Amino acid sequence: MQNKTTFSAAKSIALIFGILAGLGGLTHGVGEVLQGNVKPDGIAINSWAQGPIATNMGGEPGITIVPNLLVTGILTLLISVAIIVWTILGRNKHYGRTLLLLSVALLLVGGGVGPPLIGMLAGVAGIGVEKPSTWWRQHLPENVRHVLAVLWPWVFSIAVINGVFLVIGSVILVYFFDLNNPDLFLNSFYFSILSLLLTIFTGRAYDIQLKGQRVTALG
């Protein structure tokens, strides 16, 4: 992987949103553990059965292939922690792919829908840390790449603000302010996915331009 001192848009995206995915998974896992040693009615579950998250956020639905909510919650917590640790400390060439696989596992054991999808997209961004940019150079004209690169910091900032609101701010609002507006959180989730996709796209252009500037400076 790149030198630790070398900035990368792809790495920044994977780092921030990988952590947010792990934190979101932890919220689901806690709710499932609190439900105890019970069997769900099917693979579709609500992570929370009582409390503000249950009443104000629709219970944070998800799926699980594990027929026990206590075990589901424990696995969700473990995988969520693994995602956070790997996102921060992972350094080998399989960084993005590992984050992607961990996020798929999170989806299957009760981590909800939003956190795993955010984690998967973070993994896709992470794959771009070392992957050659030949395709992008061939299919995107230089002037288009330049515009996208200029947009990346703004798009990234907006996506991060919304992601923090979705994962952290929403929990604060329902617990401390008793906010009951599920549509707000649902729309924030939709916007998070769209903005993250755009962030990955513009970030690729940003890294190509940044790499070109480094080559020019070294030359």
What key phrases describe this protein's structure?
single chain, 219 residues, mainly alpha, 2 strands, globular
Structure report:
The chain is mainly alpha-helical. The protein has one domain (9-218). Helices cover 73% and strands 3% of the residues. The chain contains 8 helices and 2 strands; from the N terminus they run αβαβαααααα. Strands 1-2 form a two-stranded antiparallel ribbon. Helix 1 (9-35) runs antiparallel to helix 3 (69-89), helix 1 runs parallel beside helix 4 (95-108) and helix 7 runs antiparallel to helix 8. The longest helix has 37 residues, at 182-218. The two termini are 23 Å apart.
The secondary-structure class comes to: mainly alpha
Strand content: under 5%
The percent range for helix content is: over 70%
**Major sheet attributes:** 2 strands, antiparallel
Number of extended strands: 2
Strand order of the largest sheet: 1-2
Please state the CA-atom Rg, rounded to the nearest Å.
Answer: 19 Å
Amino- and carboxy-terminal Cα gap:
23 Å
- Tally of contiguous helical segments: 8
